[in-house]
Amino acid sequence: MVLPVVATAAVRRAASSSLLRRRPTSAFPSTARAQAQQTRKMGGGQPESQSMKARLWEGHSPEPEGWEPTIYATYVVGFGLITLALGFSPDTSIASWANNEAQARLDLQASGKLDKPVFGTLYNTPEGTGVASDWDDFM
Question: Which of residues 111 and 126 earns the better pLDDT score?
Fold first, then answer.
């Protein structure tokens, strides 16, 4: 797109006007230079809140109250019970089940009770391992 010559000339005159030219920094008065160098306080003149002056636990006795030993003992006993319950919980992962099932199949094949494993049959049960029939014979 070609601009008309008249508009281009008007832009040149406006750009060369003395209002748009930058003045050197020495032309600024010294007070303006001092104001430009001041640091901002970022709201430093605000009053300090009363909550920032307060002491922590002011007005409370440092002596133990009647309910504190009971609650601390409850925390310790509860922590111990949860630790024991989680520590002795059975392993219910699919990997441990598959490992036990494979070991039961290998044991049955080694003892000659199983010729070929059948897909979909569980062998790690009292009926699958033959323990149920041994128990019935015992009784």
Answer: 111
In DSSP notation, the chain reads: ----HHHHHHHHHHHTSTTTSPPPGGGS-HHHHHHHTPPP-SSTTSPPPHHHHSPTTTT--SSPPTTHHHHHHHHHHHHHHHHHHHHT-----HHHHHHHHHHHHHHHHHHTS-SS--TT---SSHHHHTHHHHHHHH-
Q: Kindly report whether the global pTM for this prediction surpasses the value 0.85.
A: no
> What does the DSSP 8-state code read for residue 16?
T
Contact status, residue 129 vs residue 123, Cβ threshold 8 Å: yes
pLDDT score for 7: 59
